[in-house]
Design brief:
The protein has helices at residues 4-14, 19-38, 48-55, 60-70, 85-90, 106-112, 119-130, 134-138, 149-158, 175-196, 202-224, 235-245, 250-270, 295-302, 316-319, 330-342, 353-365, 380-395, 412-427; strands at residues 75-78, 94-97, 141-145, 164-167, 281-286, 306-311, 370-376, 400-405. The chain is α/β, with parallel strands linked by helices. The longest helix has 23 residues, at 202-224. It is globular, with a radius of gyration of 21 Å. The N and C termini lie far apart (51 Å). The relative contact order is 0.12. The structure holds Double cubane cluster. Double cubane cluster binds at residues 80-82, 118, 120-121, 147-148, 150-151, 287-288, 313, 344, 346, 348, 376, 379, 381-382.
């Protein structure tokens, strides 16, 4: 394989990146990928596309973004599911979900953020402070949002280093909250129109909605196959597909995921799976898992379980609801966008019982034996909401294991022991 520095060094330098620190990051990701992914047996052929995408994580896609910018196009970075990618795309800009899934630059980060800040926030501030993420560096605008307090306040610091616009997100879902949110959507349109010099129209918004819905439908197909008795794809591979959905080229991604879905549907018909039928089926729910955070799935699957569903932002919350395509006027379409996005069930909202309903429904559809609730340490919304989720699962007769962790590898031994014990227990509930 050619030396990435030789191929892309000039591009990274032009982006003002810290090349020395970036080299260290680029060395770490393949090692993590190798350990989590490449030893898996019986992977679908279609996953080779994702092996390639990860091998080029800071290369080819960045080159595509640069080509887009060279033609006058804009790149918009986002950190949260509530930012409507359809509006960004309608204006001819490219939207990139910024990842923040690795522990990076904490020494510097902890000079500006409290140590007890969640790993995701520390990671996005660290990536920016150390200039190691070419996605952040290529963004003409980053859109933040008032979700949890940690993110909201960290954006004030992040905004000193990068062009930033923050959307005000309500924390309840009453009619007046919807009206306020609809106003925020209008303000976002104005901001993005100024950035791009283009206008949102019913035509370009309709086309963007159809395109993004196409991506979500492809992910729905891939994930539906996991409900089969013989599971045709590992949880890690399915998780990776959603992680990549946030930054890959949309038409290409949709085509590749549909090809994998074809393969999985055939596997199901042929009874070809990646885990023994006796493997405990697990649903994971909680905080998002941004690339390269594969820790909890890796532990579960290396302990003999199989993850069959994710209720999280890097899972069903991203793809299970579509944006209405039937609006005739621009206002109708924007109403549909506002409704679709406010319907996401993030723990920053109160009450958020619809999330419990989603988890229980998904657990039944996917015939799960147990739920692993995953919260990043210091993520109060998910850590506290675990109480209600556990209660709802108990009422439905589904065992729950609560894991609070971060991006470090230090607790892997201890987590593995807990996960192994949980898998044993859900396999033989009568013995407990
Ligand atoms: S819609 S989950 S992407 S806010 S893990 S930073 S909540 S302390 S990421 Fe999220 Fe949007 Fe909600 Fe999804 Fe705060 Fe928790 Fe950290 Fe979090």
């Amino acid at each position: 394989m050619s030396d990435p520095m030789e191929t892309y060094g000039e591009m990274w330098e032009a982006l003002g990146m810290n090349l020395r620190a970036h080299c260290a990051l680029l060395e770490a990701i393949p090692q993590m990928y190798q350990g989590a992914y490449l030893g898996q047996e019986g992977r679908p052929e279609g996953m080779k596309y994702f092996d390639f995408v990860v091998s080029e994580i800071h290369g080819l896609r960045i080159q595509e973004l640069m080509e887009h910018k060279a033609k006058g196009g804009k790149v918009v970075g986002t950190f949260c599911l509530y930012v409507p990618e359809e509006i960004i795309r309608a204006l001819g800009a490219l939207d990139i979900g910024l990842c923040a899934g690795a522990e990076w630059g904490y020494n510097e980060v902890e000079k500006v953020l409290p140590r007890n800040t969640c790993a995701l926030i520390k990671s996005f501030v660290g990536f920016k402070m150390d200039r190691v993420c070419p996605y952040v560096e290529s963004a003409d605008l980053v859109i933040g949002e008032t979700t949890c307090d940690g993110k909201k306040k960290a954006y004030e610091i992040f905004g000193e280093m990068a062009p930033l616009y923050v959307m005000e997100l309500p924390q309840m879902k009453r009619p007046n909250d919807m009206a306020a949110w609809r106003g925020e959507i209008d303000r976002l349109v104005v901001t993005l129109e100024e950035l791009t010099g283009n206008k949102v129209t019913a035509e370009n918004l309709s086309a963007a909605i159809a395109e993004v819905n196409g991506k979500r439908r492809a992910l729905q197909r891939l994930n539906a196959a996991r409900a089969a008795d013989v599971v045709p794809i590992s949880g890690k591979d399915a998780l990776l597909a959603v992680q990549v959905a946030f930054y890959d080229d949309v038409p290409r991604f949709t085509q590749m995921v549909n090809a994998i879905a074809d393969e999985l549907e055939q596997r199901v018909a042929d009874g070809v799976g990646v885990a023994p039928a006796s493997a405990p089926r697990i649903l994971v729910s909680g905080s998002p898992m941004a690339i390269p955070n594969w820790k909890v799935h890796d532990i579960i699957e290396k302990s003999g379980g199989i993850v069959v569903a994710e209720e999280m932002c890097t899972g069903s919350r991203y793809y299970d609801k579509l944006t209405p395509e039937d609006g005739e006027t621009l206002d109708d379409l924007l109403d549909g966008v506002a409704e679709k996005y406010l319907d996401i069930n993030c723990a920053c909202f109160t009450p958020n019982t619809a999330r419990f309903d989603d988890v229980i429904r998904m657990a039944k559809e996917n015939k799960v034996d147990g739920i692993v609730h995953y919260a990043l340490q210091f993520c109060a919304p998910y850590q506290i909401e675990a109480y209600g989720l556990e209660k709802a699962a108990k009422e439905a007769g589904i065992p729950v294991l609560k894991i609070d962790t971060d991006y470090s590898m230090e607790d892997i031994g201890q987590l593995s022991t807990r996960v192994e014990a949980f898998l044993e227990m859900v396999k033989e509930p009568a013995a407990v």
